[in-house]
Amino acid sequence: MAPIPEREVLHCKDCPRWYGAEDDEVGPCSIKHARGDKKYLTHGSHECDEPEQIKWFETEKLAHKRRKSS
Ligand code: SF4
Asked: How many domains in the chain?
């Protein structure tokens, strides 16, 4: 899994649910694709709008901060 970046909000290019290549500007979001959304391609700099993944990111950020301070 990709390391959690020191970013306040999750961007698609940093998300393990995004399948764009590093140099691509757009790629598929696997959550949107699995749900059957017509617009499942997102820009790498798109700020996450999937509540489940935002929750995951917040949890990971907290764990990351705890690891850094211990
Ligand atoms: S919209 Fe959210 S869940 Fe989907 S790829 Fe982007 S950051 Fe990940």
From this structure: 1
Is 65 part of any domain? no
The predicted-structure confidence for 30-59, as pLDDT tens digits, reads as follows 999 999 999 999 999 999 999 999 999 999
Compute the chain's Rg from CA coordinates.
Answer: 13
- Atom number in ligand 1 closest to CA 52: 3
- Is 48's C-beta closer than 6 angstroms to any atom of ligand 1? yes
pTM of the model: 0.87
Report the C-alpha gap between 7 and 15 in whole angstroms.
12
Ligand 1: atom nearest CA of 16 is 8
Tell me which residue range forms the domain holding 22: 8-49
